[in-house]
Design a protein that fits this description.
By secondary structure, this protein is mainly alpha-helical. It has 3 helices and no strands.
């Protein structure tokens, strides 16, 4: 059972004023703590955003390094392919050149063989030219000698 005791009114007013003052101080502290909390949360959000940006930046750099490695690898492969193609073209050109030289050599050999018979005889054109050269000097000498004699 609660026993009510008589408290003077001025004492009650003083206590109420102290409680109101204390309550106002508590509200002020809570308001300040809430502001601090909000500022801290803003900082945390900003830090989280910065962390995500940094993480994204690292990911981008890592991807760029991968892409660069891939580009270099592809470039090396393309250069190797180009070298092989060039070597192949050069080999083809060399083969064509050798084939052409071989054909030219065969053609020259064929011309040389045509000029000479297998038995060692001279062909008819060569004989004809030799006969003409042999006939020309003899008649001239005979003509001169016959005119000299006359």
């Amino acid at each position: 059972m609660i026993v009510a005791r008589e408290v003077p009114l001025n004492e009650l007013v003083r206590r109420l004023a102290a409680w109101e003052k204390s309550l106002a101080q508590i509200r002020k502290d809570l308001k300040m703590r809430k502001e601090i909390w909000d500022a801290a949360m803003e900082d945390v959000e900003e830090l989280e955003k910065m962390a995500l940006d940094a993480k994204e930046e690292r990911r981008k750099k890592k991807q760029e390094r991968r892409d660069e490695k891939i580009r270099k690898k592809l470039q090396k492969q393309q250069e190797a392919i180009a070298k092989r193609n060039l070597a192949s073209k050069n080999a083809e050109k060399t083969a064509e050149k050798k084939e052409g030289e071989k054909k030219d050599a065969e053609k020259k050999d064929g011309d040389n063989k045509e000029g000479e018979k297998k038995d060692g005889e001279k062909n008819s054109e060569t004989k004809f030219v030799e006969k003409e050269t042999q006939k020309d000097p003899k008649p001239e000498k005979s003509d001169k000698s016959s005119t000299d004699d006359k």
